[in-house]
Amino acid sequence: GAVVSQHPSRVICKSGTSVKIECRSLDFQATTMFWYRQFPKQSLMLMATSNEGSKATYEQGVEKDKFLINHASLTLSTLTVTSAHPEDSSFYICSALAGGPEQFFGPGTRLTVL
Amino acid sequence: RKEVEQDPGPFNVPEGATVAFNCTYSNSASQSFFWYRQDCRKEPKLLMSVYSSGNEDGRFTAQLNRASQYISLLIRDSKLSDSATYLCVVNSRGSYIPTFGRGTSLIVHP
Q1: Strands A109-113 and B55-57, how do they pair?
Q2: Contacts of A61 (CB under 8 A, 6+ apart)
Q3: Do B102 and A105 touch (CB under 8 A)?
Q4: Using CA atoms, how far apart are residues B36 and B33, in angstroms rounded to an integer?
Q5: For residues B13-42, average pLDDT
Q6: What is the spatial distance between Cα B54 and Cα B101, in angstroms, rounded to a whole number?
Q7: Which residues contact B6 (CB under 8 A, 6 or more apart)?
Q8: Residue B66: φ, ψ to 5°
Q9: In this complex, which of A43, A46, A103 lies closest to B103 when CB atoms are compared?
Q10: What is the rounded CA–CA span in Å between residue A3 and residue B90?
């Protein structure tokens, strides 16, 4: 149980385009999901907390207009990187809570912006 | 001082060795503690939760020391497959908001 999927697993796009990443809880309902970014050889950085039916809570320094988060259902949260630039290239990972404090992570999305 | 601190390592140990990692946290009100394992270019996977009474799962033992505000992970009889980055996670700013340490790299060699 507690399986989280992400789609796509890898995306390459041109600078200026928008990219949507989906995070799904497959066998449980997740009222709370988290979005992280991880640059090579660095730790995970929490970007935002996504709560079903309400606005996401963004961490300091994360632009909410650039990283749009929508948590429209109990099993799906989406992160849209708008007008992506090469510096946005990173590993984006979501996680979900399955009723307890432990997080279950999706497999991640590797974004490369050319 | 960072909220959660770990020695990045790497810890380079031979197969069969016992190795221990510590992780310190700054918020004395922290409630939940975890160790995750992350392989290169993969997502973190929950290794074990850390309880006040300690937690043991096979070769892995986790301990919590609230007085000194650290948690530890002990790995006995290291295997090559234990090579990974071990992440300390502390829920510090509420019941579920997580803070990650930067991870400790473990390399187990033949």
Answers
A1: unpaired
A2: none
A3: no
A4: 10
A5: 93
A6: 20
A7: B21, B22, B23, B86, B87, B88, B101, B102, B103, B104
A8: -70, -35
A9: A43
A10: 22
Rounded to the nearest angstrom, the minimum Cα separation between B2 and chain A is: 13
Q: Give yes or no for a contact between A98 and A106, defined as CB atoms under 8 angstroms apart.
A: no
Would residue B28 be called left, alpha or beta, if left means φ above 0 and alpha means ψ between -120 and 50 degrees?
alpha
Q: B108: burial class by Cβ within 10 Å (0-12, 13-18, 19+)?
A: buried
Sole residue written with tokens 């970014």? A37
For B99, the token pair is: 């803070």
Mention every residue, 6+ apart, whose C-beta is less than 8 A from residue A40: none
Give the pLDDT confidence of B33-80 residue by residue, as tens digits: 999 999 988 999 999 999 888 899 999 999 999 999 999 999 999 999
Give Rg (Cα) of chain A.
13
The first and second tokens of residue B41, run together, are 């270019």
